[in-house]
Amino acid sequence: xxxxxxxxxxxxxxxxxxxxxxxxxxxxxxxxxxxxxxxxxxxxxxxxxxxxxxxxxxxxxxxxxxxxxxxxxxxxxxxxxxxxxxxxxxxxxxxxxxxxxxxxxxx
Amino acid sequence: xxxxxxxxxxxxxxxxxxxxxxxxxxxxxxxxxxxxxxxxxxxxxxxxxxxxxxxxxxxxxxxxxxxxxxxxxxxxxxxxxxxxxxxxxxxxxxxxxxxxxxxxxxxxxxxxxxxx
Lengths: 107, 116
Hints:
The complex is a heterodimer of chains A (107) and B (116).
Chain A: E1 4-6, E2 11-14, E3 19-25, E4 32-38, E5 45-51, E6 54-58, E7 61-66, E8 71-76, E9 85-91, E10 96-97, E11 101-106
Parallel strand pairs in A: 2-11
Antiparallel strand pairs in A: 1-3, 3-8, 4-5, 4-9, 6-7, 7-8, 9-10, 9-11
Chain B: E1 5-7, E2 10-13, E3 19-24, E4 31-37, E5 44-50, E6 53-57, E7 65-68, E8 75-79, E9 88-95, E10 106-107, E11 111-115
Parallel strand pairs in B: 2-11
Antiparallel strand pairs in B: 1-3, 3-8, 4-5, 4-9, 5-6, 7-8, 9-10, 9-11
C-alpha cells in the first residue's frame, strides 16, 4: 500500500466551479500535510500547509485534514483557467507525495 | 533570480554513460533535497542534506547514484552507468530548517534526464 493515495485525474471543470481534490494516507503518525501546485515543466510550489487536523483557508483555497479518517482535501472556489495545473498532496516533513491530479479549468 | 537553480535543465545521454546534475539552493538555506519525478507521478524522495551532512538516503538511491554537498552550499547528483529506467525529472529543493526557518521546501525547475 502506498503511503499516500491521490484521486486519479484528469479533472476538467468549467470556470467558476468549485473543485475538490482528495488524498488518503496510511500512517497515522503524519502531522504535516501540504498541497503543492505544479505547472507543466516547472517544479512544485507550495500552496497550503497544515499541521495536524482542521481547516485552513487562503483566499480561494481551503485545505482540510481529517486525521480520524486519514483524509486530506483541497477545495478551490471560483476556479480560474490559471488554476489549471497538477495538484500534489504531500505528507511529513520529508514530503511523501501523492501521484498528482491534473486539473483543467475551461474558460 | 534568487530561487533554487538547477543545471542542466535537460540532459540526453546514452545508456551506460555517467551524468551529473548541479543544484544551487537559496542562499542561507541549510537543507537541500533531491527528488525524482517520472511522468504522471509525484516526486519521490531520494536524499537530503543538512549543511554538508547527508542525513537520509532513500532505498531508491542505488549504488549508481551519489550525491554530495561539499561545502554546505551547492550540491551535485551523479548517476553512473545510466539505464533507461533512470529517465526522469530530477528535482532539487531547499529549505531553512531550525531557528527562524519555516521548513518550507522551495523547488527548482528540475533537470530532465533522457537515457537513450
